[in-house]
């Protein structure tokens, strides 16, 4: 083994060099990407597949749509809220990756089984919303953190693959849920078993490298000066306590809240909206396209972000997501199937892709020292987005119908796009920023 050294670059970032991925893992670090992606494929079913079974839950049990939507909102709050505590505990050695993944596997499976067999909304809240939400959040935070740690020199493309898998995994489930409407319990039980095995199996071999680890190539200090990879390096490194006092954090947090609100609104309400106007088959197709477009868009954006600039892509994505809401409502009201599919794809490419960009923006704004914890803090904005996009949206749907809800969602996404254009790196005057 080569001598282990710690280097610093001109931006104060630290690099631990001298250990190869094969020495630490016994295999190439690419394995981490595919392990994390496989686990995320399994975990994402609870978010992107939920809308596909909402009509069945309402029909079989007679539950109100508002109550079912509220269960999804609580799930999203739990899923997003656990990201920062998981990163904080992991950085202190209290919650290593295998333990977090094992717990996540059990909790995710419990959430799915609950949806298949619960006879009351209270049980759904406890089993799916709380346990399933916490489990999915543990898997999400652990897998994204692993990519951040093992691929410090190309986080964007790898984060795009892993976060894209979170959406892709639900597509087969959505199709089967539409094709087998009377076999919901069996489908969810089988899915739960697969989710348990996949996440637990991936978690058993998932490991984190030593803090500040860097691969053999490229040379870190030369990489730091390469403008193709470091267009706008952070001025300094922010700890979580400093992050919370930063004005840029508040603006970025609000952008994430609005983006999450619109995405979660679509996931919660799109299937019901389309089913009422075009039938269950078209509703399943719309949800599947939304998930597939989100997954594909995240992979694509992960590859393009460094080259085109995260700010520019984020702004256009949010504006596209806002336009998608008006396309969806207009197409639904006129029963245009092609328009609904187009709107679902545009929504997925828009609001659904923001989390991949968030990973890179956190590093670009706040540095490397506490990137996983800082990401967890900003990712928690999804919880507030759930309150707006699912909880408050239920009131709008009840009082003004889907027309008012889609209009509000569109305006919120457009507002987020405008606000994202005003984001600046903390500590750097806007006039000194290079063109995005």
TrEMBL record:
It comes from the Bacteria. It is found in: Cell membrane. The keyword Disulfide bond does not apply. It is a multi-pass membrane protein. Residues 247-436 form the Major facilitator superfamily (MFS) profile domain. PROSITE patterns: MFS (PS50850). The chain crosses the membrane at residues 31-57, 63-87, 99-119, 125-149, 161-180, 186-206, 251-274, 280-301, 313-331, 337-362, 374-396, 402-421. This is MFS transporter.
């Amino acid at each position: 083994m080569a001598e282990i050294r710690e280097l610093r670059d001109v931006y104060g970032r630290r690099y631990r060099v001298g250990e190869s991925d094969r020495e630490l893992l016994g295999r190439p670090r690419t394995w981490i990407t595919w392990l994390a992606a496989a686990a995320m494929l399994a975990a994402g079913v609870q978010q992107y597949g939920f809308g596909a079974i909402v009509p069945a839950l309402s029909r079989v049990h007679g539950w109100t749509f508002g109550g079912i939507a509220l269960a999804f909102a609580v799930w999203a709050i739990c899923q997003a809220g656990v990201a920062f505590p998981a990163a904080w505990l992991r950085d202190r050695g209290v919650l290593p990756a295998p333990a977090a993944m094992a717990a996540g596997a059990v909790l995710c499976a419990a959430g799915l089984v609950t949806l298949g067999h619960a006879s009351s909304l209270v049980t759904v809240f406890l089993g799916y919303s709380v346990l399933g939400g916490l489990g999915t959040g543990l898997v999400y935070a652990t897998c994204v953190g692993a990519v951040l740690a093992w691929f410090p020199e190309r986080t964007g493309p790898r984060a795009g693959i892993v976060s894209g898998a979170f959406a892709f995994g639900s597509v087969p489930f959505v199709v089967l849920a539409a094709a087998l409407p009377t076999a919901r319990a069996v489908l969810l039980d089988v899915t739960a078993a697969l989710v348990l095995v996949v996440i637990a199996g991936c978690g058993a071999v998932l490991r984190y490298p030593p803090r500040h680890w860097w691969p053999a190539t490229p040379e870190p200090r030369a990489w730091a000066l390469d403008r193709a990879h470091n267009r706008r390096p952070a001025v300094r490194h922010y700890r979580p306590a400093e992050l919370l006092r930063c004005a840029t954090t508040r603006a970025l947090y609000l952008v994430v809240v609005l983006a999450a609100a619109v995405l979660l609104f679509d996931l919660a309400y799109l299937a019901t909206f389309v089913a009422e106007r075009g039938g269950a088959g078209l509703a399943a197709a719309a949800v599947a396209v939304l998930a597939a477009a989100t997954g594909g868009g995240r992979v694509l954006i992960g590859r393009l972000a460094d080259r085109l600039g995260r700010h520019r892509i984020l702004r256009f994505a949010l504006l596209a997501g806002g336009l998608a809401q008006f396309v969806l409502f207009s197409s639904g009201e006129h029963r245009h199937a092609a328009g609904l599919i187009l709107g679902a794809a545009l929504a997925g490419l828009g609001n659904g892709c923001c989390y991949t960009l968030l990973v890179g923006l956190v590093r670009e704004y706040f540095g490397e020292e506490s990137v996983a914890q800082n990401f967890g803090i900003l990712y928690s904005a999804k919880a507030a987005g759930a309150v707006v996009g699912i909880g408050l949206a239920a009131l709008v749907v009840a009082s003004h119908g889907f027309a008012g809800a889609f209009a509000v969602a569109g305006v919120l996404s457009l507002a987020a796009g405008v606000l994202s254009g005003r984001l600046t790196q903390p500590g750097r005057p806007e006039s000194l920023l290079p063109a995005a």
